[in-house]
Amino acid sequence: MPALCVRALRKTYDNRVQALKGVSLNVAPGDFFALLGPNGAGKSTLIGIVSSLVNLSEGSVSIFGTDLATQREAAMRLIGLVPQELNFNMFEKPIDILVNYAGFYGVPRAVALQRAEEELKRAQLWEKANMMSRTLSGGMKRRLMIARAMMTRPRLLILDEPTAGVDIEIRRGMWKTLREINAAGTTIILTTHYLEEAENLCRNLAIIDQGRIVQQGPMKTLLAMLDVEGFLFDIDGVLPAALPQIEGTTVVATDDHTLDLEMPRAMDLNRVFAALGEAGIRVRSMRTKSNRLEELFVRMINQPEAAQTETAA
Q1: Quick one: CATH architecture of 4-218?
Q2: Any idea where the ABC transporter domain is (predicted)?
Q3: Strands 187-191 and 156-160, how do they pair?
Q4: N or C: where does the chain have the smaller number of CB atoms within 10 Å of the terminal CB?
């Protein structure tokens, strides 16, 4: 039974804008799933419908087999939502925010207090439990949103741009928290504009554009569709003015000590090392470029609409 099953979902707003044009997707229980797409693609509308904040025009949604249209209250008890915008009272204490939120869902106060301590400790906010929330940093506020959503012990956690506006160190700390939540059994759906984030965290993904799913499947399978891969080489010494020409590859110096190389996936990397060696260039270390998902994303959303429809079908 899928954690989330969406079938032929359509949404047309009163101004006749079609935000969703027959979207269908399944998210398996326990998955860490990425929903990607440019601004205006339909991500927010899809999340709004699943979380019962937006009414659908056609189609169906079920959460762990619970139909959203006929069993709305039961379905909502299975979901935790972390919206992009901060939407808690900045003049409340974190522990009160969590306990009061749990109370809205019928969690007894004694249980809520115990859960609040657990979630604030996991979010590394226990020492801030009794401070005014407005005094928290941006990253702390984001972690507080996740802690609040977990107070009802949701089976499906939906995160809409959870790391927007936080620096990379805080973002990576939040990744650790989300991995722990997922490893404990909670299914997670993530929307993000940080494609590195999706590639690091998620096992499956769907790309939505112009209200349609243009591609979906396992992360590794979709990344394998790319016929090129990129590497960064750290070089001993200074690069020569004239770089070697290696047939079938693109070699660019990003600075005096770093080479950026793109090559066909089927090409033997030993050819590259041999050519660099003949040119007197010694490679100290290498690493894979982390923009593979970004390249796939750009390719998918730049397909003609007819091709997108065929791919989605």
Answers
A1: 3-Layer(aba) Sandwich (3.40)
A2: 4-235
A3: parallel
A4: C
